[in-house]
Here is the input.
Amino acid sequence: MLSFLLTAASLFTGVSDVSPLALWNGADEGRAVFLLAVSRVPRTLALVLAGASLSIAGLIMQMLVRNKFVEPSTTGVTEFATLGMLTTMFLWPGAPVPARAAVAAGCGVFGTWVFLRVVRVVPVRQLVLVPLVGLVLGGVVGAVTTFFAYRADLVQSLGQWSQGSFAGIVPGRYEFLWIAAAMVVIAWIAADRFSVAGMGEAFSTNLGLNHRRVVAVGMVVVAVITATVLVTAGTVPFLGLVVPNVVSLLVGDNVRRSLPWVAALGAAFVLGCDVVARLVRFPYEIPLSVVVGVVGAGVFLWLLLRRGTRAH
Amino acid sequence: MPSLRPTPVLALIAAATLLASGCSGGSSEAASSDGDAAQTATASFTWQRNTAGEDEDPVYEETTVEVPVDPEKIVVFDLASLDTIGALGGEVAGAPLDSVPDYLRDHLADDAFNAGTLFEADLVGIEAQQPDLIVIGGRSAGLYDDLSRIAPTVDLSTRGSYTENLERNVTFLGEVLNAPDAAAAAITELEDGVAQARAATAKLGTGLGLMVSGGRLSAQAPAGEDASGRNARGGLIYDAFGVRPAVADVEAATHGEPVSFEFLLEHDPDYLWVVDRDAATGQDQGAQPAAAVLDNDIVKQTKAARNGHVVYLDPVAWYIVFGGVDTTKIMIDDVLQAAA
Here is the structure.
């Protein structure tokens, strides 16, 4: 219901006057219809796809690491994918978007693997420390990226396109996100296996599960989602972290049951933030990542602080 | 960072002369064999120097610096000044070589050294070269404290009116290079050109300056008289060339305000003046060129696109250099061609 309302809000929020009334009257020689088709609908669709898939990516990571505080942007995956994208820009200028996304996804997979290795090797006693390790890892990779960007005079460009924004979405510039949507379907099919894999290698092998393969699939799904959203709209922080946690508070931890909720809430959250981003400085926009970052960081802190009061 | 009071001017000149003599620990009497007389003549330059940090409100302090006339070695960080120095027949010994655009390359000495980037200075390298004059401005204005310890340093940043600044800087550099006539001629020519361009834009209806970077759009704003440094950049098309803004109240951020394609259709300016930022910074980085970004159904509906009035300005001139004699000529030509 909430998602539906926000979708409507997203469709009817923008610089131009597109209201249900205008649609009904067919005012302005169908201009409202035109704008709806080439501007509002693609943008809304892109937001729904990105929001849902990023939240699912966060959920998968949380299952694999068995930690509620991880998601692509707190584990270095996003930074690795960004580094991959920068490298492509640098070594292969003018590469087609699919190629850039592929390299970014490849680096993202590597980043996930590195993070999982680090978490396995370094005995981390407290749950909260795991994302800290991830943030440190991300910081290191981010520093490498910044260094290269600085040497190549790409710092400002890096800032430009890594800032999440859906302002430039028109037909033909977001279809890539359907790949992320396909990943969500895969995640849905493999959800139980991810939960089991999170229990550890011995446990899953006892249940007759190929642990390595499941983890590999999970890593690829997370990285591909991260990379497709990155090349389409930039980085959207905290989403995969906040949404699954809120859902787990609302409907519990059964992944089968919570998965659709995570997707729906993720979509709603991003839609809501984007509508805010369009309205704060109307008729100008502020980057979506700013809104998501502020709200997401607040919720993240709240989740961290209330952990103390709850046995897990 | 502790900001030391700039050493008294006299000491600076003494130091510069000592440096120019190129002797290590020799007597300060030893002046360079040529230009002995020239070393004694100085030109003075006064400007309001911003002493506040990067993210603070500006605090201006009137600063006057005496610089030698006919300096042998000039180091320039401000590309607009590099342009003007070359146009007036001078030569530059050091500059951020990686950032010097092709059309200004011949203003560099054959053995020009790399002084750093547009934002940062290679202080050790510059010190070793012992320049007689250092020119900063805009992106490099913050280097004043460090560089003024090496040689007399002037900041030719843009503040307020573009044309007034241009005249001031060309006049001053003409004085420094001992080429007052060339400077006066250049100023007259540029004034005429800008006047022509303004006459042309007066007939073009409304316009919107638009920066395109990484597939994102930013609307540019008139900066007005209080613009300084790079904030003035986006407003040049309105402030200096008289384009009537389609949207009056965009705030002058350094890179404009993010907008959507719908914004273009809604405000529907008669002309779109586009700066392709990624092309300006010389990155064929896979980010689509501005023309590709603007090639979509929404933009095609705008008046500007329907009438073929989407103008692509020379990105290096308008975004990187935005000042100086030859660059201003390029800008004037851009506007006149669009209006033709």
Summary: Confidence is low (pLDDT under 50) at residues 1-38 of chain B. The first strand of chain B starts at residue 42 and ends at 50. Residues 203-339 of chain B form a domain with the Rossmann fold fold (CATH 3.40.50.1980).
